[in-house]
Amino acid sequence: MITVQMILDRLIEPVGQLEKTVDTLKSGRLDAEVRKVAVVFMTTYAAIKQAVELGVDLIITHEPTYYNHMDEGEWLSGNPVYEKKRALIEESGIAIFRLHDYVHSYKPDGILVGMLKQLEWESYASSENMRLLTLPSDEVHTVRTLVAHLKSKLGIESMLVAGNPDLPVKRMGLMPGASGGRSHIKFLGSQDIDLLIVGETSEWETNEYVRDAADMGLAKALIVTGHQKSEEAGMQTVVEMLRETFPEVQVAFMECPLAVQRI
Amino acid sequence: MITVQMILDRLIEPVGQLEKTVDTLKSGRLDAEVRKVAVVFMTTYAAIKQAVELGVDLIITHEPTYYNHMDEGEWLSGNPVYEKKRALIEESGIAIFRLHDYVHSYKPDGILVGMLKQLEWESYASSENMRLLTLPSDEVHTVRTLVAHLKSKLGIESMLVAGNPDLPVKRMGLMPGASGGRSHIKFLGSQDIDLLIVGETSEWETNEYVRDAADMGLAKALIVTGHQKSEEAGMQTVVEMLRETFPEVQVAFMECPLAVQRI
């Protein structure tokens, strides 16, 4: 019998138990049997409902369940959305494990590897630092052609660009998710890259840095793809890992629409 | 002679000196004479250059100069964009004062008042809580009609919507800027509103809360306008205040293009 604990052990094993981490069991029991696993980017209400209907025993989610990084619930006590979501989870008995810090701590970063695969950019990544990509010297790329590539490979309708969209790109950085302005700006300041591709920014940080750089005449540009699409395909790494270790368990990736639409 | 100190005193006076604040003099001297003031949303490199060319003595900016809320510079030391911006500021001798915490602490919030004026929504605001708006009972509004109004009044090309765009709206919240997921969600959870309009969110917080609420069948929607356009017009409050107090000083609002474009 495969249990929640056995799956968690497998997910944690490449890193070892972290002392401080948001990756905890949000619901369910460690000794519960697991026949079906759903891997998701975000445990939305709709995704949990769908998982329950499909008979999923364990959801592995990259992002939080309760609208804050630490999944703190006290401040939400009595909030109707929070209470209804919590009731669905508790009544179903489904297990939810967040896999954020561990998968990013795999060597190399599991999300980054999954994204490079999805983008067919694996061979461009530097072996010392896989976030650093060098495009083939016989190919001509600009920010605009890379936007088109990201759209087609990740299914994104439009994205945000700072700097000149027609800037030629030879070397670039890929930082999925929202790793923060300091991390983006330090990378831009220390690496010889033309373009940084990120998931999400705070507008007054990375966006303004790249705007200023471009206004100074520096060959720098930024693409902001949106957080979900910048990491979602990366969770495929987890699907493959679990299928390999536990062939008797059904493991499926559950895609999810974006929370927002552009009008 | 009007000095930087006299202008700062006027800006601080409605609140009194705050002990902890990001609103500090970022450059220049308190005893310098001021004949020309530029009010901006963000002290971009281009805006500072333009101000210097126009002979501006003091820039009043709502947002930081150095890509982080505290305007900390140590971590940026040696960064070419930071050093070039700092050199422009120091060589010009221009004074830069950040006006963020004070203007938001005016009673009522100076940015909010300016935005309500720009949107022609002043009469809809509750007198107890000006962020709470009730639309006229003889008018029919949906999220979509309000998006159209925001676009035309604020010059926004497109914005993000969570929930049903055709949801009828009677009562709504207006929270310019990026006040954070907890503040947005607490407002949504405690007020009887159909729609919340905000400047900027973290995607995994407010957006996901409203997505879940809508998927639960609750009549809730969210509009995310973008940070700059949600607050920029609010700085007009400061322009008017200074013109009234210092008629001998030239005070102008300097608009700024967005840092990013959508492709």
Order of helices and strands of chain A: HEEHEHEHHEHEEHEHEHHEE
Cα distance spanning the termini of chain A: 49 Å
Determine the CATH topology of the largest domain in chain A: Udp-n-acetylmuramoylalanyl-d-glutamate--2,6- Diaminopimelate Ligase, Chain: A, domain 1
Oligomer: homodimer
Proportion in β-strands of chain A: 15-25%
Summarize the largest interface: chains and residue counts. Answer: A-B, 58 and 58 residues
Second-tier CATH architecture of the largest domain in chain A? 3-Layer(aba) Sandwich
Q: How many domain units of chain A? A: 2
Query: pLDDT average of chain A, as an integer?
Result: 98
Largest sheet of chain A: 5 strands, mixed
Question: Which sequence of strands runs across the widest sheet of chain A?
Answer: 1-4-3-2-10
Please compute the radius of gyration of chain A using only Cα atoms. 20 Å
Low-confidence stretches of chain A: none
The CATH class of the largest domain in chain A is Alpha Beta
The number of strands of chain A is: 11
Structural class assignment of chain A? alpha/beta
CATH superfamily membership of the largest domain in chain A: NIF3 (NGG1p interacting factor 3)-like
Total helices of chain A: the number is: 10
The helix content of chain A is 25-40%
Give the overall silhouette of chain A: globular
